[in-house]
């Protein structure tokens, strides 16, 4: 069983490999009633890139950590893909959907870590 930090770090690495941007890690560990411990949120510039990022996360986490998501939703239109790793939820958006839902602002008492974009 991998630690949540290992899982979060591998997810971030997989996102960066496909040039996902504006990556944030929302630490929900101290939030009562939270659905998971971490949200990893990022965006791709198009549905094609969103799908590539989600594929990269699924492949890299499975190959290197032996973990598979319990659910993946949103691949049919790839404007918002959610991947459920029980303690870690991954959300990959196109920019306007991310702006609209703004899920990183739902828990204003959660610790949010912004990961610098790789050029």
Plain-language structure description:
The structure is a single chain. By secondary structure, the chain is of the alpha+beta class. 34% of the residues lie in helices and 27% in strands. The chain is built from three helices and six strands, in the order H-E-E-H-E-E-E-H-E. The chain has helices at residues 4-17, 47-65, 95-101, and strands at 21-27, 38-43, 71-73, 80-84, 88-93, 111-115. The protein has a six-stranded mixed β-sheet with strand order 3-4-5-2-1-6. Strand 3 (71-73) and strand 4 (80-84) form a beta hairpin. Helix 1 (4-17) packs across helix 2 (47-65). The longest helix has 19 residues, at 47-65. The radius of gyration is 13 Å and the shape is globular. The N and C termini lie far apart (33 Å). The mean pLDDT is 95.
